[in-house]
Design goal:
Elements lengths: L25 E5 L4 H11 L5 E4 L9 H13 L3 E4 L1 H9 L3 H10 L4 E4 L8 H13 L3 E6 L10 H13 L4 E4 L19 H8 L8 E4 L3 H11 L5 E5 L3 H8 L4 H10 L6
Parallel strand pairs: 1-2, 1-8, 2-3, 4-5, 5-6, 6-7, 7-8
Helix pairs in contact: 1-2
């Protein structure tokens, strides 16, 4: 793809990964994009999107043919698509997980999100769910953390779940922050980053590249990029914020440019 400023402007922050990526993942949260908006999104930003999550149980309300068409558009653009983890929790609760997984495949999803943010799922069941999903050739993305801050997991249990999920074949593990990014996980009630919570989490994780940090707000994305670098994995990104996020990653927006500038005031080609 030819870039319009190529040969004139050099990107200030180097090292951005390209697809198919193992790091620098961007997961878009989709609350109901129509196919025409999706087509525009892929045309404008598809190069920088790795996963689209049809969040919560929203995929239950699509026309089946439309859902299949939408999933096909996404996967043909080299982007994974998955239903929300909350929907999987309903399937587990209702004891129809195997049927859910078959239907997920039939509908054209390429990935599944495995979470227990609302219901309780024991360790053996979680392991079996991951294995069955992998056996069906899904990309498995798990999630740790509870949606209700009053039910926050002990840090030792988070470390255990992250380690076990990766050992059982998960591609990445999401750190829960909900779609609002406030009052859950590493964010306070105003959406500001709680640095001590980040440090507590990474202290027990061998490779932080296995984590996807849900970060729907700009200040959160900025803080995580400054902390972990251009190729930090970020999730719950609003669809219309993908290029703005990429500008943050590569140092052509705000504070990430300031950091690049201060590190290298004199530009030499």
């Amino acid at each position: 793809m030819s870039k319009p400023w190529e040969g004139i402007i050099e990107i200030p922050i180097e090292g951005r990964t390209s697809k198919p990526r193992q790091t620098g993942i961007a997961m878009v949260i989709d609350k109901g994009l129509g196919v025409r908006r999706l087509e525009d999104l892929i045309e404008m930003s598809g190069e920088y999107i790795d996963v689209i999550k049809l969040t919560f149980g929203t995929s239950a309300f699509y026309d089946e043919a439309l859902l299949k068409r939408k999933n096909r558009m996404i996967t043909e653009a080299n982007i994974d698509v998955m239903p929300g983890g909350t929907f999987l929790e309903v399937a587990v609760w209702q004891k129809v997980f195997d049927e859910y997984l078959d239907r997920t495949k039939d509908l054209g999803f390429s990935a599944v999100e495995i979470s227990d943010g609302t219901i309780e799922i024991d360790g053996k069941t979680r392991q079996d769910i991951i294995k069955k999903s992998r056996d069906k050739n899904f990309k498995v993305i798990t999630e740790v953390g509870k949606k209700d801050p009053k039910e926050a997991l002990p840090i030792s249990l988070m470390h255990q779940l992250i380690r076990e999920d990766m050992e059982n074949g998960a591609f990445k593990v999401i750190i829960e922050a909900r779609e609002a990014g406030k009052g859950v996980g590493i964010f306070d009630t105003e959406g500001k980053v709680r640095d001590e919570e980040i440090e507590n989490i990474i202290a027990g994780v061998e490779d932080t590249n296995c984590l996807i940090w849900e970060a729907p707000l700009k200040n959160q994305q900025q803080a995580l990029i400054l902390r972990f670098g251009v190729n930090v994995n970020l999730g719950n990104i609003p669809a219309d914020e993908i290029l703005a996020l990429e500008a943050l990653r590569q140092g052509v927006r705000g504070d990430t440019l300031k950091k690049a500038y201060l590190e290298r005031k004199e530009w030499t080609r």
